[in-house]
Write a structure and sequence with these properties.
The protein has 207 residues and is an alpha/beta fold. The chain has 6 helices and 11 strands. 28% of the residues lie in helices and 23% in strands. Strands 1, 2, 3, 4, 5, 6, 7, 8, 9, 10 and 11 form an 11-stranded mixed β-sheet that branches. Strand 2 and strand 3 form a beta hairpin.
């Protein structure tokens, strides 16, 4: 049965953040809030935790996961970023954007797009998520918590606990964080490509 933590959205309790990170580092699957929706997350190097998330979401091996990063410097460790894209990222992080970039060798092969060798990365503007990332000192491998057959993410932590209490190790109640997913911007080529218009304002990426 999963644990359930109430973590304050504006002033996350350090003790609970440490315990949550211990669960992540130990191979656990965690439900946590972001600036766009609740997400399922696990340690970047844990294949069994990744497989558990795939089973929960019923995802095939081609589904792209996102690496949640604590800041722009960490994002740059996992993606190849030129000067132009660095400026774009600096102006839009933290925030509700997922950026598709060329992955570096730091990214496990199973997380990269098999043909393009790309990875989705983002820096969330959410104090709980950022506290988890700072304490963990590396990215959280994540996917939005949308259940199979549903159109929208789950938003009620109590409903999430009831539904997934035997499938995840921890549910973090961080309050309401919305239904709208991130905007997804492909920065693999010179001209940005909008793959999904979501919560983030895409005006700066439209020619």
């Amino acid at each position: 049965m999963s644990q359930f933590y109430h973590i304050h959205p504006d002033d996350p309790q350090a003790r609970l953040i440490r315990h949550a990170v211990e669960i992540l580092a130990g191979g656990g699957v965690v439900v946590y809030p972001t600036d766009s929706a609740y997400a399922l997350g696990c340690h970047i190097g844990d294949k069994s935790a990744l497989d558990r998330i795939r089973r929960i979401r019923r995802l095939d091996s081609k589904h792209n996961f996102t690496l949640m990063c604590r800041d722009l410097s960490e994002l740059s460790l996992y993606a190849k970023v030129d000067n132009l894209n660095y400026r774009r990222l600096k102006n839009h992080t933290p925030g509700p954007f997922t950026f598709i970039l060329r992955a570096t060798s730091e990214v496990p092969t199973r997380l990269k797009h098999p043909q393009r060798k790309s990875i989705g990365l983002r820096v969330p503007d959410n104090r709980i998520a950022l506290a988890l990332l700072r304490e963990l000192s590396e990215p959280i491998m994540s996917v939005t918590l949308i259940m199979p057959g549903d159109e929208y993410p789950l938003i009620d932590p109590y409903e999430i606990r009831e539904l997934l209490e035997h499938d995840v190790d921890l549910v973090i109640d961080g309050g309401y964080c919305g239904l709208e997913p991130t905007s997804v911007i492909d920065l693999m080529d010179d001209v940005p490509v909008i793959l999904r218009e979501g919560k983030g304002d895409i005006a700066d990426f439209v020619a």
